[in-house]
Amino acid sequence: MKYLVVLTTFLLGATATPVRQRQTTQAKVSGFSASTNTYGNGATIDYDVEIAGLVNTHCSYSDETSGPKLPDVQQRPCDDPAVRWQFRQDPSQPGAEGRYRIVVIYTSASGVGAAGFHEWAASDFLEDADETIYEGASEFIVDIS
């Protein structure tokens, strides 16, 4: 019986403790562009990220080896290493082409990290046999928490 009272008190105390929600920060992405070079001899992804009062940096990727399809870009730093990012196209599902996704990761000076993503329909990326070109909005917000 003693154990039941202690366990009940412990569980009630745990449920009475408020759950803290993570703070969400907005990262403004501007000037976003992504494309492969005509005839599939390389790719570029380029944009700026601003988190008001914290960081304003440029992020980019380029290669000379990608074919006509945009490559998956593994996590890499922006000019300010407090911001890292990655880019990929999700796997296709039956009847639908996979969505494109960019992940933005911010690590504060205290070492606390937060991340968020933005995704697009595949139709925002014009693809033909020779190249892929992003045709969507060049500015968008990424909620980072």
From TrEMBL:
* UniProt KW Signal keyword: yes
Which superkingdom does the taxonomy of this entry point to? Eukaryota
Instruction: Could you list this entry's UniProt keywords, alphabetically sorted.
Output: Signal
This chain's protein is named AA1-like domain-containing protein
Which N-terminal residues, if any, form the signal peptide?
Answer: 1-16
Source organism of the structure? Xylaria grammica
